[in-house]
Sequence to fold (203 residues):
Amino acid sequence: MQLAAINMVQENAEKTRGILMRMTDLLECWELGLGQHSRRTAAYVELLVEKMREMGVYGDVLTPECAERLKRGACMHEIGRLASVPAMAGIDTVSGNNCAQAGERLMGRNLEYLSDDRLARIIQEMISCQQEKWDGTGFPRGLKGEEIPLSARILAVADMYDCLLEQNPGEKEAASGKAADAMKKECGQRFDPEILNAFLACV
Fold:
């Protein structure tokens, strides 16, 4: 009986992984100017969480299981872009500012198919809160500081870094330095200082 339960858990985990990978593939088809942005962002999330655990930043929360869920969730943070294909998404075409809300609505109808409730919650947090800012000036709810879910605060750093790198094509080290300098200016404004400092320590 115990072995059957373990097998079922493993099977559900594989199904969840498969669903996310297929949705990520679909997302990439429509991210015309961003290429592999979602996967790169997920890789930066993984790197950042590793460094945070090493430095003891939110270490009581960032278990290995949580780290894996954060990486998987980051793959889905731009899912609102699918709302630009109304027939596929089943919702109205949206502007960039409403992308997070569209993604939240789209995923809300599909998260029930995921067997991992904690992963489902992280995906929802990342989608709905990715535009919130540490100083409370973000949207859609104007959350401030630790009111913003940890998952979304981690995503914000990784996502911005990749976007800035794409805006500064050229020699990788120089582009990375420019991105880091730009992000330092928003420490304590857009970004959680502890999370940003951890990220800057590993890029």
Q: What stands out?
A: The mean pLDDT is 78.
